[in-house]
Amino acid sequence: MIYRVPDLPVPDDMMLTRGVMSRRVFAWVLDLLLLGILLVVLWIMLVVFGLLTLGLGFPLLGILPLVPFCYHVGFLAGRWSATPGQQALGLIVVRNDDFGRPTLLQAVVSTLVFYLTLATTGLLLLVALVTLRHRTLHDMASGLVVLRIEAMQALTPPFGYGNMSGGTPFA
Question: Where are the domains of the chain?
Fold first, then answer.
């Protein structure tokens, strides 16, 4: 007897990416605020440490520019596959080919190209207005895509879709 595997639902790009552009903008603003708070707290701690060590700790202030990079890479490659701002607005970053979690290398490439895009006035982010699934240059360079969590959950049958477990992608 031959068993046939049931057909999985084909992802509808409109369903997966509806409202993603505006959510990404607000998520970026929220992440910017969170990063600002984090950097101020770290700066105060490092200045106090520098004063307590009579100036020997001040060179540690040099790690502050690395904090935003580590923030983005850590959250993209982490368990949640999204920064806190993206999580708050119902977004998830997944691989474009199989909707799995991003690898560490993909997170690094995405973050590097994102900061390069911002360094060139950020106008290159407008590429997302004309690409399939509203992907930006850093998404395309890293092989990632940003989708709505609700749409991902709708695609996830009890037995799982692709390499995702059933139910919520965060379980």
Answer: 13-155
